[in-house]
């Protein structure tokens, strides 16, 4: 495990603390989950962008009747 220091606004910290209390999770657990979800989502997004840039095959949605 690594330690990382972050700076949050007072409002965001209070919201995080409230959610942690409501879910029975620690602040560390909530922050780790939030960062993991952010990384997962952005890795997918960036991979999609790279595929578009490289003109690789990708799914295309077309509206009916066109």
List the helices and strands and how they pair.
Elements: H1 10-23, H2 27-53
Can you give a write-up of this model?
With 66 residues, the protein is mainly α. The chain has a domain at 10-53. The chain has 2 helices and no strands. The chain has helices spanning 10-23, 27-53. Helix 1 packs across helix 2 (27-53). The longest helix has 27 residues, at 27-53. It is elongated and about 50 Å long.
Low-pLDDT sequence parts: none
Shape: elongated
Count of DSSP-assigned helices:
2
Instruction: Give the total of beta strands.
Output: 0
Radius of gyration, taken over Cα atoms and rounded to an integer in Å: 19 Å
H/E element sequence: HH
Structural class: mainly alpha
Mean pLDDT: 89
Strand content: under 5%
How much helix, percentage-wise, in residues?
55-70%
Distance between the termini: 53 Å
Biggest sheet layout: none
Question: Notable features of this structure?
Answer:
elongated; 66 residues; 2 helices; mainly alpha
Quick description:
The protein has 66 residues and is mainly α.
